[in-house]
Amino acid sequence: MNVVVFASRKGGSGKSSLAAHLGSYMAENARPTLLIDADPQGSLALWHRIRGSQDLALHMGTKHLTATLAKARRAGAEWVLIDTPPNADAPVAEAIWHADLVVIPMRPGLFDVDAVQATIKVCRELKKPYAVVINAAPAKNGSEDPMVADARGAMRVLDIPTWGGQITHRPELSLSLAHGAGVNESHFGSAGSEEIGSLWRALTKSFDAMKAMSGTQAQSA
Ligand SMILES: Nc1ncnc2c1ncn2[C@@H]1O[C@H](COP(=O)(O)OP(=O)(O)OP(=O)(O)O)[C@@H](O)[C@H]1O
Ligand SMILES: [Mg+2]
């Protein structure tokens, strides 16, 4: 079971959006998935309610997280996506503690680059793998937009693992959520759907690599 936590102290960076789009991608690919909305704002739960479908399970709140994850494992969940509020307080740290991978969405901008560091500090303290995902970026125009290149450069200097792709700022990404869908469902084959698809492939690859590594460590122990 792969537990992915979406975390960033910065409000509006795209935590709930990425959790919902990836959740819908998983539903479409028939991957048993549990969504956990650990944010009292309840954005992911709202999207799930509008969706009105049973293809994704939902749990709300951070209470009994250990028991909830154990139950999901027993029920055969393959993925657990945990959305968290925009802070680095104890409940977020608790969610991160349960993570196999922390996805930190970041808009390209000075304040955003600065804000992710509080979340990264928690990941580092808890020794959890994490990666920044550049979200709501200006579209590529042949090459990467200077804002994205700048943000990427800052991540490199700070030695922060950053996904090589980007999720561009696209109306269909927010429009689809308003209908309880993911962009892959409402705008299949669109550029936004392709980007979410490559993020999903990158996540899958990271988990495969982590599993291969832990297998090797177990063998050599
Ligand atoms: N790539 C994108 N393209 C277009 N709109 C986006 C994109 N990413 C996020 N948004 C929009 O930006 C707003 C904030 O996104 P979202 O709610 O996912 O962020 P969040 O990190 O969960 O916020 P909070 O910290 O308040 O929980 C939403 O209106 C969402 O639709
Ligand atoms: Mg949110």
From TrEMBL:
- Where does the CobQ/CobB/MinD/ParA nucleotide binding domain start and stop, copy by copy? 4-175
Gene3D superfamilies with a match to the protein in the record: P-loop containing nucleotide triphosphate hydrolases
Q: Which InterPro entries match?
A: CobQ/CobB/MinD/ParA_Nub-bd_dom, DNA_Partitioning_ATPase, P-loop_NTPase
Any Pfam family from its record, for instance, is: CbiA
Q: Which PANTHER family match?
A: COBQ_COBB_MIND_PARA NUCLEOTIDE BINDING DOMAIN-CONTAINING PROTEIN (PTHR13696:SF96), P-LOOP CONTAINING NUCLEOSIDE TRIPHOSPHATE HYDROLASE (PTHR13696)
Protein's UniProt name: ATPase involved in chromosome partitioning
